[in-house]
Design brief:
It is built from 8 helices and 9 strands. By secondary structure, it is α+β, with helices and mostly antiparallel strands. The protein folds into 2 domains: 133 residues, Alpha-Beta Plaits, CATH 3.30.70; 65 residues, 2-Layer Sandwich (Alpha-Beta Plaits). Strands 2-3-5 form a 3-stranded antiparallel beta sheet. It has a two-stranded antiparallel ribbon with strand order 1-4. It has a two-stranded antiparallel ribbon with strand order 6-9. It is elongated.
């Protein structure tokens, strides 16, 4: 064999290296296992358990789950039914269309309360719903176990999400500050008929119908059919859910920048 052929020979072509390299790797892993195990016997051992991580001396990084958690970890949701205002923003912002607003047992039968129901067979855990929740009642926990033999069990009702909330699992930080460039809900007065639909359906009761001056009409002039009231929106209480815009029959409410 020439010197040139020896120089271009690959390590894998050498039979000694071909045998010695995997044996060296196995010996290195065996030495490491004497200090800590190379595998985690899940579900009997869990990395999110601080006691287990301390026992096996897995120090680098933060554990995911109970104890110290990653701030941006997104798992199963938790819902506080008591503070939910049924604004529908979570379902509106969901890109996977996995959230439906369903009736919650109890309360006024004439006006039942609606809360989100999540289908985890479709959910991508993007976190848009918890970011959009104005009351911070829908958050994401560190729970990641969802395996089930039945697809129907992947659908979590509001009551089931409330039980997760009551277990007080660690949750992600809630976005409370509004962006500076957020639009407001504006009114085009000539189109308003004072029907009160916006104020009636507002989940935060931030819309008040106030009297407006009725203009004087000339004899024989046709008068518009309307109630002489107009909505006034309290921006500090408004959560920008858009319910008033969607129920307005004359489309006189719209998104815009207040001057």
């Amino acid at each position: 064999m020439t010197d040139e052929a020896t120089a271009t020979e690959k390590p894998s072509d050498n039979p000694i290296l071909f045998v010695a390299k995997p044996m060296l790797t196995a010996a290195r892993q065996f030495a490491r296992s004497l200090v800590r195990p190379s595998t985690v016997v899940y579900p009997f051992e869990r990395l999110e358990d601080p006691a287990f991580r301390k026992e096996v001396a897995v120090a680098p990084g933060k554990p995911i789950g109970v104890g110290a958690i990653w701030d941006n970890y997104r798992g199963v949701h938790a819902l506080n039914i008591n503070t939910c205002i049924s604004c529908n923003l979570c379902a509106f912002s969901c890109p996977d269309l996995c959230i439906d607003m369903v009736n919650v047992p109890g309360g006024d039968p004439k006006h039942p309360k609606k809360c989100p129901q999540i289908d985890y067979g479709k959910c991508s855990y993007c976190g848009f719903c918890s970011d959009a929740c104005p009351e911070g009642c829908l958050t994401m926990t560190t729970r990641y176990e969802l395996s089930t033999p039945k697809r129907a069990e992947m659908i979590y009702s509001p009551t089931r999400l409330f039980e997760i909330y009551r277990t007080k699992l660690p949750m992600n930080p809630i976005r409370l500050e509004r962006p500076e460039n957020e639009d407001s809900i504006l009114l085009e007065p000539p189109l308003c008929i004072g029907c009160n639909a916006c104020s009636r359906d507002c989940p935060t009761n931030c819309i008040t119908m106030v009297d407006v001056t009725k203009p004087e009409f000339k004899p024989g002039e046709k008068q518009p059919r309307r109630i002489w009231k107009e909505p006034v929106i309290n921006d500090s209480d408004c959560v920008r859910c858009g319910t008033c815009i969607s129920v307005c029959p004359k489309e006189c409410l719209f998104w815009g920048t207040r001057k």
